[in-house]
What does this fold into?
Amino acid sequence: MSANRAVLSVAIIAAGGVVLTACGGSKAYVPLTAANFGSTISAAASTLRTGHEVSTSNGVTTTIDFDNSGVFAYRLTQSSGSAGKRQSMIGIGAVRYVQVPGVTPAGKWLKVSASSGAAVITFRDVDPATMVIRFNKGLKRFSYVGPTEIAGAQVQHYRIVIDQQKYLRATGQGLGSANLGSAETLTEDLYLNDDNTVRRVALALPGGVGNTQVDVTKAGTPLSITAPPASTVVTSIPTRR
It folds into this structure.
């Protein structure tokens, strides 16, 4: 988004669009509806090639740089607790390289292949749009709040209320099997860029479970995600006695 976007005048017109006017021109943002938001943000997500994602939940911060332009690749770090315990992962296609303090040898990466039986992480697993679409199965209320700003850039704010029982039934789960708290509904605040790609998802979990927030930035920024140097890669961890 250009720097000029911050000074655009915003108006709501009778046709239901948000008109952004600058330099004598205009560009209308047409709010999504409950009927089309799932398919629209799913289509928008498919255009993402690279990005930077930060999620926080229950004191755990996960940062992911991803490249979806060819074979899916990502670089992930996760830290938790006051000591900031940090573990890292690099994934390229079906191969992963894992670094866990106290488990993998210092400075080494454990190579894990698909043949190990571990699930392969795909773009769908890190795309926040997937979380939004998943909860669509329990949609109770959907509303367009309006334009707002995050870090000085304009975004479109939606609020989604999810019926937990409806969602769990639709996904074949029992209430006791989901760590979603005891409330009947969940509220999700969704912030979209003007091209309907996800900028932020904020989900407040009831019952003291905690909150989750996912931010996506740097869409389209060139990335270089490569395997660790061969000298730092191990294929097994020595057994401790």
Remarks:
- The first strand starts at residue 9 and ends at 12.
- Residues 116 and 136 are 33 Å apart (CA to CA).
- Residues 1-30 form one domain.
- The chain is about 10% helix and 45% strand.
